[in-house]
Write a structure and sequence with these properties.
The protein contains 13 helices and 9 strands. It is α/β, with parallel strands linked by helices. The strands form 2 sheets. The chain has a 7-stranded mixed sheet with strand order 3-2-1-4-7-9-8, with helices on both faces. Strands 5-6 form a two-stranded antiparallel ribbon. The radius of gyration is 20 Å and the shape is globular. The chain starts with a helix and ends with a strand. The mean pLDDT is 89.
């Protein structure tokens, strides 16, 4: 599969998320989710000769899209380690951070990565292919109870226990290694199409499979914990007046981002000083969530569920 920066991932809410950063020409910025580099390239357009941009991505495929610019530094790492890497680069504070939490189009379209149930392919789902547990490992090695918890917490599937039971029963006879194996374990019939693509005709089944694959992907990549660590690191690194611009795609990550921006913690517990004033380190800039226009959704259907939240660091 030939991948270019343009096809790797179409940037979502590009203008709105960049505007939300309120970029200073000489500022220091972080793109926590480099991917195809669309947001990074746009940030660089707004920076002057003394500005700096650090972009994170743990996926080796993303390195093919690296920007040739003296003001740009690519960090091959999970964004959860943002504080450590900024310390390594001797950066004490940043003026803004952008994160597009959506899975790149490239991951869904590359059948070898196992992110989509459209392909009868190995169940991998690792963002970092160099290490870690695969989705197949989760399906075969987790206890039935652990699987049910993953499906319920990260996929919000009401039938989580029934799904886990079916998987446990099937894997006792044969390891579940591919999408086809998983569908068979769940008793789901899929029509085989060209290029090993699978088609599920029932619309509700499609939605349930999307939730199931989401749950596995989140578990494999420890996405919720990584997001919390990145946001805690970002709010500590931001200068007073610095901006945080984050695009979310599902309720689990959106809830964490909303809580961090309003209360300074993932639980959403607002602390107050002696006079009853909020001690939150951030204040929301857009009280109303920014969503893609109808035109953008038409151009890029994967942007349909995107939500943009923007916050500013309060005075320390």
């Amino acid at each position: 599969m030939i991948t270019t920066a343009e096809t790797y991932h179409v940037p979502v809410l590009l203008r709105e998320s960049i505007d939300g950063l309120n970029i200073l020409p000489s500022g220091i910025y972080v793109d926590a989710t480099f991917g195809g580099g669309g947001h990074s390239r746009e940030i660089l357009k707004h920076l002057g000769p003394n500005g700096r941009l650090y972009s994170f991505d743990q996926d080796a495929d993303a390195e093919k899209n690296i920007v040739d610019d003296d003001r740009f530094t690519f960090v091959r790492s999970n964004f959860r380690y943002i504080k450590n890497w900024m310390r390594y680069y001797e950066v004490d504070h940043i003026d803004g951070l952008l994160a597009d939490l959506g899975v790149s189009s490239h991951h869904f379209d590359d059948e070898t990565r196992g992110f989509s149930f459209r392909f009868d392919a190995p169940l991998d789902m690792r963002m970092n292919k160099r290490a870690g547990t695969t989705a197949a490992d989760v399906l075969n090695d987790y206890s039935e109870e652990q699987l049910a918890d993953v499906f319920y917490l990260y996929g919000e599937l009401k039938q989580a226990r029934r799904i886990a039971k079916s998987i446990a029963k099937a894997r006792a006879n044969k390891r579940i290694s591919t999408t086809g194996d998983l569908l068979m374990a769940l008793g789901i019939e899929a029509t085989a199409e060209d290029n090993s693509q699978l088609s599920i005709t029932n619309s509700q089944l499609k939605k349930d499979m999307a939730r199931l694959f989401q749950a596995l992907r989140i578990e494999v990549n420890h996405e919720m914990q990584a997001l919390k660590e990145m946001l805690y690191g970002a709010q500590q690194l931001l200068k007073p007046g610095g901006r945080l611009s984050v695009i979310t795609y599902h309720s689990l990550e959106d809830r964490i981002v909303k809580n961090m921006m309003r209360a300074g913690n993932a639980e959403g517990k607002v602390e107050q000083d002696f006079f009853g004033r909020s001690k939150a380190p951030l204040r929301t800039v857009n009280n109303k969530i920014i969503e893609p226009s109808a035109e953008e959704v038409q151009r890029n259907p994967r942007s349909r569920s995107a939500k943009l939240r923007i916050a500013e660091k309060t005075q320390e």
